[in-house]
Amino acid sequence: MTETATLAPARTPRHDAQEAKLLLDVRGLRTWFHTRDGIVKAVDGVSLQLREGEILGLVGESGSGKSITGFSLMGLVDAPGRLRADRLMFGGRDLLSLSPEQYRQLRGKDMAMIFQDPMMTLNPTLRVDTQMIEAVLAHDKVSRKAARARSIDVLVKVGIPSPEERLLVYPHHLSGGMRQRIAIAIALLNSPKLIIADEPTTALDVTIQGQILFEVQKLCRELGTALIWITHDLAIVSGLADRLAVMYAGRIVETAPTPEIVGGARHPYTHGLISSIPSIHTRGKELFQIPGSTPSLLNLPEGCPFQARCYRADSQCLRAPPFAEVGPGHWASCWHQGVQA
């Protein structure tokens, strides 16, 4: 990021966004971790819908539940985590009814995830070509030569120089940024219907970051691939996503088309995130900080979980606010929602 990483112009929503087929339909997703100290409600009642070719930005501080939401959708939550949902549909299939083997067949082909740590994708004991070719052959009946050609093509797309040479090395021979680009390339190999990207460009420089963003937007536009981009960086996602969903303490507290969030956020937490982004207008000034810290997910307060940090909080906030529509396609969970002056 540059020194003055202001919000990018909000991406213009697709004109056919409402006509596109619904790909992902999640209602009441709950992922709780049952520990000796109590139940950690990492994801607590998340609902979201995603259409083909649509890009959703999932935004929030560390610990808000963004990554666990992604892991839950991919079926990658292990004990002591327990996943429940009122509805969890993907491409017309009920994910709650899939066996572990059926979920494994889905991952990598129709659903792919780009992890924040590339070594969660890459096997340190195998060469890059082995890992990429096997990822193709696991889901597509093509020759190894064709799989290798596809791997080289994808490596070029993510900005890796001399891709033929990079295929012959082991992950530990590469820099962290190079490993991340290869992990992104593996996710793109089979042109999945949905990609969940968990802060995948954090370790990359600005030039490569821009190239990756361009490629994923192109993929969504040309192939109808849907994308969930998980990040804490509104400056990046505001120019990428069609819609934003803001998470706090395991819940979505506001969601709307990106221009609506950037230009007229209704939840105080969203206001705080936007105000804390440096820009040319804040040069030389102290940046805004949201006071306090996120509450413990073991012991959430009654009512609104943001009340202890909120400048609008009053006695009404001791009751949980409803998640209500405050404008066309704009939902927020706050008793005192309103556009910040």
UniProtKB/TrEMBL annotation:
GO CC annotation, single: plasma membrane
InterPro entries: AAA+_ATPase (IPR003593), ABC_Ni/Peptide_Import (IPR050388), ABC_transporter-like_ATP-bd (IPR003439), ABC_transporter-like_CS (IPR017871), Oligopep_ABC_C (IPR013563), P-loop_NTPase (IPR027417)
Pfam families in the record: ABC_tran, oligo_HPY
Domain ABC transporter: 26-274
One of the record's GO molecular function terms: ATP hydrolysis activity
Keyword Zinc-finger: no
Coiled-coil boundaries: none
NCBIfam families, alphabetized: oligo_HPY
Family: Belongs to the ABC transporter superfamily.
Stated name of the protein: ABC transporter ATP-binding protein
Gene source species: Parapusillimonas granuli
